User: Which sequence fits this backbone?
């Protein structure tokens, strides 16, 4: 029995309009975390903090006034938006999510509602505008990351307990509305807003506002997508409302983690987008990546394929340097992922959950009647076990755009697909031709 909600989910089930279909078909995105935090890169007063670099203000307990002094040093002389867009194109990402404003409150666009913007730095120019144009010129969609929590705004509150809190937070919500309307007006090609910094009590007690923001942005930019992390309902329930319905257009809870391909198949019922860091937990630029494990390109690739195999998107994070260039590890990663996508992107873009039982060799993805096997683990048996749903047969198998491989039926709805003759030396894709029998003929009695 459902309870009445004023600020719960606006819609039940997935969106199937063209804009959402494009969001879904894009599948692979990149995050750009860029702000004042890139200048200190995890070090403050001679001490290196191992925590997330974009949280350095918090770790080192730096007062806002002192932190914002960094604006005087903000002058990315090596920044070239066209080079950034080329790098994204070469990686094969279809969209880029840019931190317009992170928790620190520094805006990459010349907002007229605060002094804490690029306009008041030596760089002066509209960085966000340059990025939006460059990415769009390369045919790459632009999504905006926006942190509601703003450590530098005097009216931000973690909780609302007193009349003063209430008055201040009301001013804060108006300030935030103004910034969001500014972003939607100045950059109308933006396709998505990804809200962060919405976990505190102050927001949970103002679910109405989160509902208002979703409706306001959708009115200003028809088709725009909004992440579930913005939303709190009448009772402060986040992401999924008190009736269990997903709010926003896609679940955005998988940050540095992924749903289990066997135990968490429920996620295939809705749209979702995961995001990941290359080190264990660094979104902004950190000068010392030796402090944690750094994922290899194949480990990044596996997470991308894992997400798509369960009907989700994956956003891989980049933390540009203060000078506007990228660290070599990130340049190499973009090249490596891009080379693989050039050969195998067919099993990623526009693909979805196949609905077949997960196997140890890797993941299935599917587009219409094409089922792809993306192999990460080669069995000593040289046979890749494929179990199909009742009434489904594997007719043929072939290495992507290459020669076919032998398929032998081993039992009811079970096949052995042969490994390729030559060891590919990297994750590879086998494309299956299947036949889904109308009337199920069960020859095994
Ligand atoms: C997408 C990522 N989300 C931000 C974040 C949020 N949190 C966090 C930390 C403690 C409680 C709740 C949320 N940790 N990192 C990161 O700074 C980055 O922007």
Assistant:
């Amino acid at each position: 029995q459902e309870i009445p909600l004023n600020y719960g989910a606006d819609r039940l089930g997935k969106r199937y309009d063209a804009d959402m279909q494009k969001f879904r078909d894009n599948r692979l995105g990149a995050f750009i975390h860029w702000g004042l935090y890139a200048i200190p890169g995890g070090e403050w007063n001679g001490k290196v903090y191992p925590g997330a670099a974009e949280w350095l203000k918090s770790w080192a307990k730096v007062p806002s006034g002192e932190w914002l002094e960094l604006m005087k040093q903000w002058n990315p002389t090596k920044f070239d938006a066209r080079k950034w867009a080329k790098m994204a194109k070469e990686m094969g990402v279809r969209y880029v999510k840019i931190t317009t404003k992170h928790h620190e409150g520094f805006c990459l666009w010349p907002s007229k509602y605060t002094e804490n913007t690029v306009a008041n730095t030596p760089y002066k120019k509209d960085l966000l505008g340059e990025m939006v144009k460059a990415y769009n010129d390369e045919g790459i969609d632009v999504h905006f990351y926006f942190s509601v929590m703003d450590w530098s705004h005097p009216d931000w509150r973690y909780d609302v307990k007193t009349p003063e809190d209430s008055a201040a937070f009301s001013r804060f919500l108006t300030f935030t509305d103004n910034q969001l309307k500014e972003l939607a007006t100045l950059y109308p090609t933006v396709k998505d807003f990804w809200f962060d910094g919405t976990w505190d009590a102050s927001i949970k007690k103002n679910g109405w506002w989160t509902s208002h923001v979703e409706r306001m942005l959708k009115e200003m930019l028809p088709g725009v997508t909004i992440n579930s992390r913005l939303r709190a309902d009448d009772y402060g329930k986040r992401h999924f409302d008190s009736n269990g319905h997903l709010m926003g257009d896609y679940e955005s809870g998988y940050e540095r983690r992924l749903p289990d391909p066997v135990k968490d198949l429920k996620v295939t019922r809705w749209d979702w987008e995961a995001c990941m860091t290359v080190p264990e937990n660094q979104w902004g630029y950190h000068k010392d990546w030796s402090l944690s494990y750094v994922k290899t390109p194949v480990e990044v690739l596996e997470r991308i394929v894992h997400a798509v195999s369960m009907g989700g998107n994956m956003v891989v994070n980049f933390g540009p340097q203060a000078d506007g260039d990228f660290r070599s590890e990130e340049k190499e990663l973009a090249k490596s992922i891009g080379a693989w996508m050039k050969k195998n992107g067919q099993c990623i873009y526009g693909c979805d959950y196949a609905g077949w039982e997960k196997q140890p060799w890797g993941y299935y993805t599917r587009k219409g009647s094409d089922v792809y096997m993306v192999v990460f683990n080669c069995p000593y048996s040289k046979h890749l076990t494929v179990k199909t749903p009742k009434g489904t047969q594997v007719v043929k198998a072939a290495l992507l755009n290459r020669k076919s491989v032998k398929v032998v039926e081993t039992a009811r709805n079970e096949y052995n697909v042969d490994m390729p003759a030559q060891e590919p030396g990297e994750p590879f894709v086998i494309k299956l031709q299947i036949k889904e029998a109308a009337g199920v003929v069960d020859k095994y009695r």
About this structure: The first strand starts at residue 28 and ends at 32.
